[in-house]
Amino acid sequence: MKLSEAKAQFIQAWGLLGAQWGVNRTMAQIHALLLIAPDPLSAEEIMEALDISRGNANMNVRELMNWGIVEKILVPGERKEFFVAEKDIWKVGIAIARERKKRELDPVLKVLLQLNKVEGDQKDKHVKAFRETIQNIQKFANQTDAALNAFIKSEENWFYSTLLKVIR
Amino acid sequence: MKLSEAKAQFIQAWGLLGAQWGVNRTMAQIHALLLIAPDPLSAEEIMEALDISRGNANMNVRELMNWGIVEKILVPGERKEFFVAEKDIWKVGIAIARERKKRELDPVLKVLLQLNKVEGDQKDKHVKAFRETIQNIQKFANQTDAALNAFIKSEENWFYSTLLKVIR
DNA sequence: TTTATATTTCAATAAGTTTTGAAAGTTCAA
DNA sequence: TTGAACTTTCAAAACTTATTGAAATATAAA
């Protein structure tokens, strides 16, 4: 397989994966493009490579920077801004986990805490079923939260390597 | 907080979470509704509770059954079909992990395996950067795959409890 | 300053996804 | 069989999200 073909396939696959995760396809494709680029790319180059508009490129590069997985860099002697992606996939994973936890898990934990306060007769089966479900989800969510926090805190591979030893 | 209010909030929160995960909002809401229902619900009851059409209810209930987290049951003496959700959140988590792994991780692993075969001069920095990225992602993806498989295989809580002991 | 170059914003538009509802299909008791 | 009760399908409509591109804004060299 030729490099150009392989690159295209990788960008496509990464975009698809992103889309399934609720991430804008273009954002994931820009990320893929930067991941495999040996040197920083300018907005122009990104637009060209993915055949997208300036506005689109700008917006999604900014979002990638918000996620902390792409950085703007200034090349001496150049007016233009250039962009590079964090190349350590472990760090990328941590950044993504942090962002998703903040946006998804944390709000759910907050709601669940509220819902525990539901009034009503414990003997009413509707009340009983509701409380039980909420409490079970809460337990599960708290465990997930703990696991994610551990993952996020880990700056090295110890988490995974220990985990793998345990689950074998 | 009244039960009716709490139920509505839970259904809304679960729907929102689903949407962020790339799951159809209605599908997640039906799931929430069934999770907190003490008894099986009919299509009619789902339509009524969520104010959705018959077709929509049918389509999303079917998808929930595909995911293995909702079951159709027949009540003796009734023509109608009724539906119940798996109440054990642990099992729900496993079912979701299994489904997402199948749909998302497995195809990526397959592509990555292909992309390793890229031709080219190892001294070319483009080739070098590409290979390195692919290999790093592959390593990370394989570790994730192993962790997910362990999670899926676990039918009891030992995985989490051991994990939590390890990461503290 | 002024000018040229680069970036950001945002309203309009395009693309994609979900929902509806009526028609077709299925099942079962009579 | 027939027909009532129920389920499934699917084209069209509604809704949601992403993208464009041109205007506004910012920045740096001359």
Order of helices and strands of chain A: HHEHHEEHHH
Q: Which consecutive residue ranges of chain A, at least 5 long each, have pLDDT under 50?
A: 162-168
How many alpha or pi helices of chain A? 7
The interface involving the most residues is between: A-B, 61 and 61 residues
Quaternary assembly: homodimer
Q: Give the averaged pLDDT of chain A, no decimals.
A: 89
Helix percent band of chain A: 55-70%
Rg of chain A = 21 Å
CA-CA gap between termini of chain A:
36 Å
What percentage of the residues of chain A does DSSP assign to strands (E)?
A: 5-15%
| Strand line-up of the largest beta sheet of chain A | 1-3-2
Features of the shown structure:
7 helices; mainly alpha; DNA-binding; three-stranded antiparallel beta sheet; 69% helix; homodimer
